[in-house]
Amino acid sequence: MRSRYCAFVRGDAAYLLRTWHPRTRPARLDLDPGTRWTGLEVLATTGGSAFHTTGTVTFRASWRGGSLHEHSRFERVEGAWAYVDGDFPE
């Protein structure tokens, strides 16, 4: 999760697409170059160790003017973690 947040900060759409699960990956990703990310707070995790094939991360990512609160799902693909999808807890 932290590496994907850093990719958003840097505007690295190629990395985000590479780390997205092939089953749910969009064909392209258009990032807003005007977004200024200001912080990441990991609120909870499940799974995600070397012994797991799935995991979740609940986080809050902030930018100037707002924040995103998401519960993300990850799965291993050929040994590497890949972002599957997420929902927005209330």
Automatic annotation (TrEMBL):
Descriptive protein name: YchJ-like middle NTF2-like domain-containing protein
Classification via Gene3D superfamilies: 3.10.450.50
InterPro entries reported for this sequence: NTF2-like_dom_sf, YchJ-like_M
Pfam family, one: YchJ_M-like
Source organism of this protein record: Streptomyces similanensis
Residues covered by the YchJ-like middle NTF2-like domain: 1-86
Signal peptide feature range: none
